[in-house]
Records
---
Amino acid sequence: MSQPALRVDSLGKRFQLGPTESYGTLRESLARLGKAPWKRVAQTKRQDDNPTIWALENVSFEVDHGEVLGVIGHNGAGKSTLLKILSRITEPTRGSIEVRGRVGSLLEVGTGFHPELTGRENIHLNGAILGMRRSEIRRKFDEIVAFAEIEKFLDTPVKRFSSGMYMRLAFAVAAHLDPEILLVDEVLAVGDLAFQNKCLKKMKDVSGTGRTVILVSHNMGAIHRLCPRCLLLDHGTVAMDGPTEDVVRAYIAHGIEDVGIVTQESNSDKPIHLRRAYTAKRDGDHQRDFRFDEGLSVVVEFEVNQTIDGCAVWAGIRTVEQVWVLGSTDTDSDASRLGARAPGYYRTQLDLPASWLNAGMYEVVVGINRNAPPTSYDRVDIGTFNILDVDTPARLRTGQSRPGILQPFLDWRQGRVTADEPSPKDHVGRHS
Amino acid sequence: MTAQERDDLTDFPVTLIRPTSGFVSLKLGELWEYRELLFFLTWRDIKVRYKQTALGAAWAILQPLLTMIVFTIFFGRLAKIPSDNVPYPIFAYTALLPWQLFAYSLSQAGNSMVASQQLIKKIYFPRLVIPISAVLGGLVDFCLAFVLLIGMMVYYQIAPTQGILLLPFFILLALATALAVGLWLSALSVKYRDVRYTLPFLTQFWLFITPIAYPSSLVSEKWRILYGLNPMAGVVEGFRWALLGKSGSVGPMILASTLAVTVLLIGGLFYFKSMERTFADVV
């Protein structure tokens, strides 16, 4: 048996919380030193007493050459820390990793891009930053430009690029990196869907040619499509390691997580004020990962300090590509709420249909507005939620995922007709 | 294991990632591997600077030129500071050249780590590339300003001595000084953001203790070696000696400067390297 491309052995990474890790000022350190120089040794020793957090603990796994491994887990589970250690950006506290082959990492699209430089210049610069040789960049230059579809803007500073063009160019450079081992972090969340698919295809090509890929993503569709095997991280440890289908199911089953709630202090300066907001299950319990066929709700708690009229509590949902899916206000279903609201603490819940939003990651923004005079009392991003890519119509029928923001089960009414007999409606349709 | 498999394995460089402890290695070989990145980062700094400024390359000449004029009027004419029998304007300008190179490179290098934090957090490369490329960026300005010096030498009819062959050494010495101090400051700045405020003061202070407006011959002979511990004193006097054929021995002073830079630079390299492993976590 040949050696694995990556062998991670009881890896651990500890971060220190508290004052020693925050930005100090020189004055503080000097003052400390001046007051009690003899304490210095003792102090460095005492650092161990500071609160610490193990971002990764006892993580071990192996990846064979040519294997594509997905890594999933909640925010803060240690996925990004793992990639940062693998790409040598930060050092582990414990354990070791044996890497066989050149490592390329793609933790962010467009790292080192400079807005003042032209597309052409940025290709060279970014290529060098990602670890390409100059000759390699020259050889692939035309291919990169064609992939990004920016031929006409090659000599325009990228600060004048649209965000789509910028992303396309950035990804194009990165996609043409060919190390033996490629580390990718959540970069597919950017760009329009067509381009996302192009990137997925390119990455599939890459993995098809025997390259080892480790992919961190919230996009279960991408994980399903690219990775036969998957690693589930939970609070810094490997909770599960196995076939993607099984791991994703386990992830969904134990999905509840206690972040993604926005809470604000009481503020008597404002007549009306948002106190708490979060995504939830139908019964109002906070949740961030939803099955496709599960109803999703947005809960907003607000406080009215003095009687006020003309106000609306609103919620908006958009994709992570910043395309708005919908906006809704609590006055939509009951216009009387536009009238006076009496002081008190209120809780309102917006219910969104089940089996409706396509699988993927979405953002929620909530707020409170007043029509006249137009005033915004609050506007808060409450973070993201996920619709998991399981049991969607597409996955049930074909095992694939399907593009689009919505994916409801829709009716197709159909009957047998003879070919030369136009339906009554057909006649109308042709001339309209 | 078949022979074929063994061959496949040897194709892949093996890297071991583990916590470092104990003695810090400089890994200069790795720095050499990343020389293309060094080139591109330097190239970016230069390109961006000239793109964003209205006067572009003219700045490189205007700065030392205007400073020279002010120095000539106030120090040369009014204060009548001696200039070792060389016309005061060229006396000052010859010193301002390496000074500007040093001051610019130092300020760029000192701020470089914080300015590049986005890069540091997202990609691996030997971090030394950042301050080094920042220092090298000052060379273009220097070359442009040097053209004016040649013009002035023709005007004042001063022929360079054979000492000019040593000029590259003095340029290197100026860059090494900027890098040495820059390494200390940039590594400190990752943890202590005070550095940003310290730099302008430090540069100004340093300007006064360097023989730019005045000759080092004002300092008595026996103190001159001590004075040479300011590396920029050695660089400036070295420039004057190489270009203007200034009399008097500058050897001991330059030796002291070289020694001081060497110590400062090696210390800076090791300090920077020892801090390197935590940069991405702290910045």
---
Amino acid sequence: MNLAAGHPGFLSPTGVEIVFVLVGLATLGAALVTVTTKRLVHAALWLVAALGGVAVEYLLLTAEFIAWVQVLIYVGSVVVLLLFGLMLTKAPIVPPITRDDPSYAEVRAQATADADSGNRWIALAVALAAAATLVTVVVDAFRSTWIDLDESVAGSAKVTGVALFRHWVLPFEALSVLLLAALVGAIVLSKRRKGGER
Amino acid sequence: MHLAYPAVLAALLFCVGLYGVLARRNVILVLMSVELMLNAVNLNLVAFDVWLRDALHAGQALTLFVIAIAAAEIGIGLAIVLLVYRNRGSSDIDRLRDLRESEGPQGGSGGGSSDEASVTPATDNGPGPGPDPAGRQHA
Amino acid sequence: MSTMTLAALVPVLPFLGAVAGLLAGRSAPGFVRPLAVLPTAVAAVLAVIVAVRQGGGAPLRAATELTPTGNDALNIQLALNVDGFAVLVAVLVGAVATCVQLYSTGYLRDDPRYPSYAALVSLFTAAMFLVVYSDDLIVLLVGWEIMGICSYFLVGHYWETPAARAASLKAFLVTKLGDVPFLIGILALASEAGTFRISSIVTRLTSELSGLELERPTLIALLLLAGVAGKSAQFPLHSWLPDAMAGPTPVSALIHAATMVAAGVYFVARLLPVFAASAVALVVMALMAAVTMAGAALAALAQDDIKRVLAYSTLSQLAYMTGALAVADRGAAVFHLLAHGAFKALLFLAAGVLIHAAGTNSLTVMARTGGIAKRAPDAYWTMSVALLALAAIPPFAGFFSKEAVLAAAEHAAFGDEHGVPVAAGWIVLAAGLLTALLTAAYAARLWLLAFRGRAASAPLAVDSEKAAEHVPDEVPSQAPETELASPEPEREAHGHPREPAVMTVVLWVLAVPSLAFGLGFLALPDWFDGGSLAPTLTTSVLATGVALVGGILTYATWRHTTAHAALHPDTDADPGLLLLGPLHRHAAAGFHLDAAYTALVVRPVQGAARLVRFLDREVVDAYVNGAGRGSRLLGAAVRRAQTGNVQTYLGALLAGSLVLAIAAVLAATGNGGA
């Protein structure tokens, strides 16, 4: 499996690689803002950006079908669902305010307290340690591995469909049952009781 | 393309999601972070699938399944969150602390969950109440 | 059926009766009395048939192997040995046990624990038959120990009273103190003689052909003697017997007078050649007998409780038997055993009737009350017979048997007996004559106080009520038993109830051998070793003379004290006080032997127990408690981590898995790749 033989190396990136890295950086930035912003609705919108970025990365990896599915399901439905959730749970909304406002510090502290829990620093430490470990290991393992993207399109709708319905039919059908169960479950859970309850 | 690019990006995305899960207070924000982690995994799957040229396209098929399951998960998760919010008046994850060890042998009423749901006397030592009195109400 | 089958049935029947009685006791109370009396009675009849068939001829033996011991020569066998001694003692046991069972149906008729009582008496009877017939030392030991445990249970029959509890424990512990050396002695004897069969040991020791000589006869004999002293209540292990009178009176009659305490004597009689092989053992036995004889008789003279008087009298009479064995005359010993078994059982049973009638155990109170002879005429007459037998007045049974003992001692003292130390003969003879005097004295005192007390001038109820409060100060220790051991305290209120007919019939049945058994000296030598048991002139005259002197002296003193008491109502008409003088105080307390035991044994043991308790509580438990406290502290520390915050848990979980992952990576790349 030595596809890496004679690859160009990191110092002479191809065009796809440049685009990939740039989009990757944007995606990462959007993700970071998602998990750090004080405004909950902003977090959802930044999540759209991050998921869209991932969809672009799928395209760059020639997995078209998955890219469109990503856009449709994640960006289209999941984020909408999340926004509905935020709305229904009356998530606190930080008022639009500038740094010049005298109550800026107070509002900011309140928003931070609302958004982030007490063990933020523990979480940061764990996440950084995990990142360091994973990146080290991944880089160490795949330093010289090369993906040949020019050979053929790996993820067109046709290819994916053939694979899905030829080899993965049974899991696919099972998945439909799971989705049905999730649907029924969600309805049952969110249905309001009769009889004077909240 | 170097495999290292998507791999490292996936690792970093995963860790960002990890941070979000551990640090965010609002349950919906936690769910968003979970989505980020799932996407990191998906990216890994796709990248390796393209690299290996797998005849079965296992990576892409699995990605599709993960996306579908994630959609189901977000649906159920939001339903649960709504229920908790309805019963407790809050969806802050660090205030749902009924499982904590009580202070003394008598046990106080759950400080963090001083809610209107404690109509029945909840014993803090017992495994019964759990994080969602919703289960109790709907049972 | 063959004689041996009948002999085997004799112990089995009461045993089955005991088992059935225990099983049926609760579910079918109506069967308890037949189950108690019939097996014992049938066993007694069978014992008589066995005795008649055996007829004093050659010993009959039968054996079946019970279990191997790892040494082929030393099998444990279920062996029976039916000779003249065994059959006669078995007849005694059967007769007394049957009488006691019959008597108990009346005496304990209202007792709620009668079923278990009757079953235990049956079990005891079976064990005693086993001891009597057994030819194997280990099987004999089994019966010996069953008797001990039955005695423990029966002495503690009235376990509600502290006196009975203490007495049963004391009886058990003291006899066990003797049984441990006894067991060692049995094992030593068997390993030297090469068999557990008593008949084989005796044959090998006595026959010229085998020429077996024990290497350590003195050691073995003294070890066995310890067990005998415990069971037969000889000095210094005798102190349990007077206390054991806390049990029901029939039990005292059966176990602590007629049978169990005789087992030790019977055992020595069976193994006499072993003891005779050691002159030291014989002298020790003679000394033991002499001390017990005279000391117990003195103590009997000072007791106030009628049952304790009889208990000390039992000690003294058992010592006569031991004395006979010390001069190597087992015929005389067993003769006295049989006669004593009959009249002492009668004495105890009659005393039970007296206690029923008088409502008290105390002789002093009986003397003050008076008139008991009129209220219990059967007990009066039979007890008079038995006391005459006890005092060895001719022609009652005790005279002939005691004369046989004294004659044997005289033979030994003048060196006529081969192999018996002259010293042993003299010791037994002198102590026997002294004890004859004392025996007559305490028998006369008992009779005078119990039956010839002050006539009841005042109304009976008032008098006895006053008397019950007036238990004399000299004997405070016996006062509690007085009321507790009497089973029916309410009888005074209803006047004098008739004793159940079965009780008085038994008394008369037992009075016959007390009166006439002495003539057995004509026939008994055929059943025994053949030595003459006839009284000799010198000792007869001497012993009867001193007995008469003792009786008359007591009577004279009693006249004096009665006259004195009539003038001074505060004093008592007890001739023992005057006769013993300053010795009375010590004799009443059993010569302070219990105090000595307390100082020598009980206090150190209690101190050791306190030390152990201290070590256990303060040292051992400290570790245990420390472990508990440590876990509790650890638990409290760990509990603080249970904050209920899911994110904290998840963070810890992820950090942990991260550490594991790093460790795995480092391990995979080989020592961290540093």
